[in-house]
Amino acid sequence: MSPTRKRQALAEITAEVIDCRRCPRLVAWREEVAANPRTSYRGETYWGRPITGFGDPQAPTVVVGLAPAAHGGNRTGRIFTGDRSGDWLFRSMHRAGLANQPHSVSVDDGLALDGAWVTAAVRCAPPANKPTLEERDTCADYLVRELTVLQPAVIVVLGNFAYEAVWRVLRELGTTLPAPRPKFGHAVEVPTGGPTILCSFHPSQQNTFTGKLTEPMLDQIFFRARELSGL
Questions:
Q1: Three-state SS at 54
Q2: Total-model pTM
Q3: Residue partners of 54: CB distance under 8 A and separation at least 6
Q4: Could you tell me the end-to-end alpha-carbon distance of the chain, in angstroms, rounded to an integer?
Q5: Burial of 138 per CB tally in 10 Å (0-12, 13-18, 19+)
Q6: In the chain, where are the structural domains located?
Q7: Bridge partner list, 119
Q8: Residues 177/171, Cβ–Cβ less than 8 Å
C-alpha cells in the first residue's frame, strides 16, 4: 500500500472511530466524565469521545494500550496524552528515538512519532479503567483495520489486556500463532507468522508507583522494538 493510500485508510478509520457509539456503557461514562470534570481541570472542554490511533503511518512498531484515561485521553482527545501513564510512555519512546519530545500534554503540543504508531484495544474511557470483554471485542475491528493498513514488524502490548486483544486480532487476521499461547510477562517476545509481539507491563501508576515497572525496564522494551523492527 502506498504512503498516500495508507494515510487515507487511517484517516477513514479515524473518522469512524470518532463517531462510534457502539457500547452504551462506555458512551454514557465518557460523556458523564466530560460533563463533570475533575476539580483540577474545571474550565477545560473535554473531548468526551472515542480516541483514535496516532503516529507515523509508515511505522514498523505499533504500541497497543488498554483504553484512554477518563481525565487523560478522554479529556485531551489523544491516547496517553495528559496523564501519568503517558508521561512514562513518551519519555521512554523519546529516549529510544521514537518520539521527538519526552512529554505530551495536549493534541497541539508538537509531539510527533517516528517509526511508531500508538493505539488502544478499547477506544473509550471505561469506568474504573476496566472495559468488559464484550466491549473489547466490539472495538476489535478498528484494531484489525489499523494493523491491516500498517503491517507492523513489532507490536508492543502494554499489559495483559492488550496482549489478549492483540492475540485475538492477529488470529482473526489469519496470522500463524504459537500454541500454546505464551504467558504474558514483561519483556516476553512472541514470534508469529506476522509481527513479533513484545510484552510490557503497563505504565500505570499502579505499576510505576510500586516499582513493578521502572524506567530502565520500559526503555528495554522500546530499544528492543527498534532492534526488532530494523530501525
A1: strand
A2: 0.97
A3: 78, 79, 113, 117, 118, 119
A4: 20
A5: middle
A6: 3-229
A7: 64
A8: yes
Residues 6+ away with beta carbon under 8 Å from 165: 64, 121, 122, 136, 140, 143
The upper half-sphere exposure of residue 152, i.e. CA atoms within 13 Å in the direction of its Cβ, equals 33
CATH of 3-229, one of 1.10.150.20, 3.90.180.10, 3.40.470.10, 3.30.70.330: 3.40.470.10
Beta bridge partners of 62: 117, 155
Q: What's the pLDDT at 176? A: 98
The CA distance from 162 to 122, in Å, is 9
Any idea which residue has 470518532 for its cell?
Answer: 18
Alpha-carbon distance of 203 to 127, in angstroms, equals 19
Q: What is the spatial order of strands in the sheet that 189-190 belongs to?
A: 54-55, 116-120, 61-65, 154-158, 196-200, 189-190
Instruction: Please give the chain's pLDDT, 231 residues, in tens.
Output: 888 999 999 999 999 999 999 999 999 999 999 999 999 898 899 999 999 999 999 999 999 999 999 999 999 999 999 999 999 999 999 999 999 999 999 999 999 999 999 999 999 999 999 999 999 999 999 999 999 999 999 999 999 999 999 999 999 999 999 999 999 999 999 999 999 999 999 999 999 999 999 999 999 999 999 999 987
